[in-house]
Amino acid sequence: GPTTILPSDANEIDFINLLFPSELLEKIAEETNRYAESEQEKKGQDPKWRATTAQEIRAYIGIQIVMGIIVAPNQDMYFSNDSLFKPSGINERITGDRLDKLNQYFHVSDNSQNPRRGQPGHDKLAHVRTIMDVILPKLKSAYNPHKEVSIDEAMIAFTGRLGFKQYVPLKLTKRGIKLFNDLAENKTYACGTIRTNRKGLPPTITKSKLKKQGDVIQMQKGDMVATAWHDKRTVTLLSTNVDPTDTTEVQRKQKDGTIINVPCPRVLKIYTQFMNGVDRADQLRSTYSICRKASKWWKYLFWFMVDVCICNAFILMKESTNHVIKTKTGRTRERTQIEFRIKLAHQLLGDFWGKRKRESIGERQTQGLFHLPIEMDKKRTCKQCSKQKIRKEPKTGCEQCNVNLCVGCFKPYHQERHPELFN
Asked: What are the residue boundaries of the PiggyBac transposable element-derived protein domain, all occurrences included (predicted)?
């Protein structure tokens, strides 16, 4: 379970900060600004660009989360005047042009210091190394795994060209029997499916001709057991964690609709029971995924890591003893990922308004109510008198404007600064 128990008043953003600390936002803002400057030195000044901040990057990630929940065919639709696309609220927080510029210059590492390909010290992951070096140790330390752990590869969808090898599940790999031996030597026991053409498997297993449902063949060498069991087809497993003599039964539906009990080695049942953790992890990560289309492979990897952090933060909060959700009837209710992501997006956006809100007539009419003369905390130079080169230090002033003003200067000061209040 979680290694850090946060207090009951901790919210979603506190859990994400355990894995994706807020200092990374400062780093991303710094690298984005650096890259923007570098590109403008090469291609000329970009009049639409202005330096970003950690607060804006934080909101930018929140916007990506919203886009993962409310999915539109293209980004422009979030800024459409069509009322059907207004519910996202993105167009109230940022302009489409600004979002385009953030997408264009978004950077997370200074890869300009990376030696060229083929030279000593070249790092193929330099584009995301800074983020990976922070996130990966935190992912490892934030959670103590349970006894049964299901492990598989995670694929990141990218169809462009890459300068390094990718893992392709259909290709033969060197992992197999040696892996199980290495794990056993480290007191880690395992079970998993294996192809029958792997070296080291006994011919009795590889050449078995099992035909009847429930038929099984097992061979043992030391602590390692090879099992071939026939269901609708023959399944072959290696295991070091189950006594081969342990058997159980599984229910199977026949063609005539009847259900029969089929004998089954217990290792098959254990494998089926716990390997679905991989499917659940894939489902969590792919549901409401924030990965956006991009021409650069490293952006897919970055957003993949952010998605992993969000999913793991959700699990940390879900398993936190201080964050059990109670219904009105007092029953416990399971936390859902959608509500976690929605609340996280709200917290990331916070009070960020990259787009200036239009001031309504009602707002203009009520603003004047707050420009009232009050007694300030101490005497200071009157702002209105100082323009006439007269030095007066009244203790009265305007709380809304946060300036000291003589009583007689209050009206002329506001007539100059806020003429709309007197229309």
From this structure: 15-180
The rounded distance, in Å, linking the Cα atoms of 268 and 250 is: 10
Structural domain includes residue 4: no
The pTM score is: 0.70
Does the pLDDT at position 364 exceed 50?
Answer: no
State whether 44 and 150 are in the same domain: yes
Mean pLDDT, range 303-317, rounded to an integer: 93
pLDDT, position 170: 45
Q: Which of 282, 317, 322, 351 is nearest to 16 (CA)?
A: 317
What does each C-alpha distance from 243 to 222, 240, 266, 268, 352 come to in angstroms? 12, 8, 8, 12, 59
- Mean pLDDT (whole number) for 243-271: 88
pLDDT value of residue 55: 95
- Say whether both 145 and 185 belong to one domain: no
Domain assignment present for 171: no
| Whole-Å CA distances, 272 to 54, 87, 176, 231, 275 | 45, 42, 19, 13, 6
| pLDDT at 255 > cutoff 70 | yes
Number of other residues whose CB lies within 10 A of the CB of residue 398: 20
The backbone torsions φ and ψ at residue 212, rounded to the nearest 5 degrees and listed phi first, read -90, 140
pLDDT of residue 35: 94
Distance between CA atoms of 342 and 65, rounded to whole angstroms? Answer: 8
Decide if 5 is inside a domain: no
> Do 205 and 271 fall within a single domain?
yes
Task: Cite the DSSP H helix spans in 265-419.
Answer: 266-286, 297-318, 337-349, 361-367, 383-387, 410-417
For residue 392, give its domain range.
368-422
Mean pLDDT over the full length of the chain: 83
Take residue 264 and report the two structure tokens written for it. Answer: 């089954």
Question: How far apart, in whole angstroms, are the C-alpha atoms of residue 131 and residue 124?
Answer: 14
Q: What does 124-170 look like in DSSP terms, one character per residue?
A: TTTTTHHHHHHHHHHHHHSB---S------------S--SS----TT
> What are the tens digits of pLDDT across the range 110-123?
888 888 877 888 88
pLDDT of residue 157: 54
- Type and span of the H or E element at 325: strand 325-326
Closest CA to 319 of 144, 137, 151: 144
Tokens of 150: 């299901």
More reliable by pLDDT, 320 or 162: 320
Q: How many CB atoms lie within 10 A of CB 109?
A: 24
* pLDDT(186) > 60: yes
Instruction: Measure CA 267 to chain center.
Output: 35
